[in-house]
Amino acid sequence: MSGPRSTLGLSRRALLRAALAGGAALGATACTPSAPATPLVIAGGVRPGVYISLAGTLADIWRERLGLDGAPQVLTTAGSTENMQLLTGGAATVAISQVDVAADVATGITGPGEPMALARLYDDVTHVVVRRDSDFRTLDDLRGARVSIGPAGSGYQPIALRLLDAAGIGADGLGERAELGLPEADAALRADRIDAFFWSGGVPTGGIRDLADELPIRLLDLGDVLDRVRQRFPVYSVGTVPANTYGLPGPVACLSVRNVLLVTAAMDDGTARALIDAAFLDQPRLAQASPAAVTIDSRSAIGTQPVPLHPGALQFYRSAKDY
C-alpha cells in the first residue's frame, strides 16, 4: 500500500484523533464516533512470536496516530484461545486470533459481545518439527512418540489434535504428550526430551529459524492428511513451506490458517474504523515487526470469513480506494 501525500496524511491523522475523541466525522461516511468506554487492551501472544510483535507495534501506532495519552496495554498470552476468552469476557478490547478459533468461540454469541473482525492479517502455517537425523517422516510415524501438541489456550493445540485424529493416531496414540510453548519445545527437542513438536506461526518463525541454525531439522509433510482435515474443517487451506525457509531438505506441504484482528460489536463504528485506518497508514511498520506481515493489505484484509467484519471496518474498506 503506497503512502499518502503529506497533506493527506495530516488530514487523516487529524480525523483519526478526532474519532477517538468523539468529535469529528471520518471520511465519506460522516459518522460521529465516540471515545472508547475503556482504554485499549490488546490480547497478544507468546514471546517470541508474531502475535506479540504485531500487538506491540499496533499499540505504538495507535498511541501515535490517535493521540492517546499512553500506549494501549499489550497482554502476553498463550495464543488464540486465551485471546478470544479475554476478548469475549471483556478483559481485552482488541485481540489477534486464528480464524478457526475465533469462529468456534463466536458461535452462539450475539449482541455487544459478538466477536467481529477488523482485518485479516496474515496466514499461519502449522509446523511439525523433528530432528533431521530422526526416522520421522509423516504424522503416522509419531505413533508412540514423545510429542508436544502446544499449550492449552493456544490456537495450535486444537489444530494438532485435529491433525492427529485425521492421521488415525489421536492424542492417545502418542507415547508421551507434552503441552509446551515454542521456547520450551525448542529446548526439549534440543535436549532430546521430545521427538517432535507442533507449532503454528508465520513463515519464517524466528524461534524455528534460530533452532534450525543450530540443529538440522525437518518438518513433517502433512500432504497425506490435509484433504481429510479440510473436508471436516473447510476454514483451513493448504500451505507450503519452501526449503530455504529453514534449510530444509525440500519444500513441505502444511496446513494454513488465517489470522484476524478482532474487536466486539460493542465497539462503536468510528473507533473501529479509526483503528484499522491507522494500522494501514503505518503498514510498513507492521511488516518490519514481522516478515509474515508483509502480505497485509487492504485487498486481502477483508477475507475474515466466517467471522463478520465490523461495520466500522467495512466503512474503511469501502472508502479505501479514495486513499
TrEMBL record:
The record, for InterPro entries, names: TAT_signal, TRAP_TAXI
User: What UniProt keywords are attached to this protein's entry?
Assistant: Signal
Q: Does the keyword Signal apply?
A: yes
Per its UniProt record, what SUPFAM superfamilies does this chain match? Answer: Periplasmic binding protein-like II
Instruction: State one Pfam family annotation.
Output: NMT1_3
User: What is the residue range of the signal peptide feature?
Assistant: 1-30
Give the source's domain of life in one word: Bacteria
Q: Give the protein name, as stated in the record.
A: TAXI family TRAP transporter solute-binding subunit
Query: What organism is listed for this UniProt entry?
Result: Pseudonocardia nematodicida
